[in-house]
Amino acid sequence: MRELQRPSRLAPGARVAVVAPSGPVPEERLQAGLDVLRGWDLDPVVAPHVLDRHPEFPYLAGTDAGRAADLQAAWCDPTVDAVLCARGGYGVQRMVDLLDWEALRAAGPKVFVGFSDVTALHEAFAVRLGLVTLHGPMAAGLDFVKNAHAQEHLRATLFAPETVTTIAAPGSRAMVPGRARGVLLGGCLSLLAAELGTPHARTSAAGGLLCLEDVGEETYRLDRYLTQLLRAGALEGLSGVLLGSWESCEPYEERLRPMLVDRLGPLGVPVVEEFGFGHCEGASTIPFGVAAELDAEAGTLTLDGPALT
Prior knowledge:
With 309 residues, the protein is an alpha/beta fold. 31% of the residues lie in helices and 22% in strands. α10 links the parallel β10 and β11.
């Protein structure tokens, strides 16, 4: 697995587009997120369909065509320096095939931020554009609006990425001790499993440091997703694993952790757990597509260089 192209960092006054590729966006939280961005001296612009609701399916932020058009227009707008997702939920897989990837590639690299359902776009941006993306808080998310650590870590990554080349997780622990080097990738486990076999997803994580997290899933379902990745050969040659949050899943120590040990331990690679990314309070921003070294016992991830140029 090779490193991907790094977009340029943001500067004060940069124009950032907020899009909603997945679920419906609460207007109050969106406005709060826009205030945070303005407080960073950014110029946020809200895409036309962000506050839409699908006429038939209430779990979608407007129609598939509308959500795709927003992302397409924002990315291809030469005045936009970054595209931030408003929230996750569900919907990316319904709209991702409507994007014109040749036009997106021609528009050149820029910063892209999101997580959860946006995992499908992280994969697509890596496979189709060869671009580093940021797995981090979203503009209308509770963590982005209310948590100082989540805000500051993303802000530092955007404006001064050289200051966050070491990502530490003091509350983490080694499930399988050791050090590993590789290129960061991953996201929401259920989405990675659902993406297998699609034209926008990797077929292998060989040489990678795989980041995994999820929300609201029963242990047997998480077992099924991991088993599917294992059976498909997607985890062969993996360098290491970082486990983030499992918010609203079953009790971690009693139910979830034994399954993770059972499924991931035989890989024979370092595994760190509770690394503090994903659907947890105060989540760190992780740059996908950047080479790094994991020290599972120390709970540190050291990037080979800044996430953005």
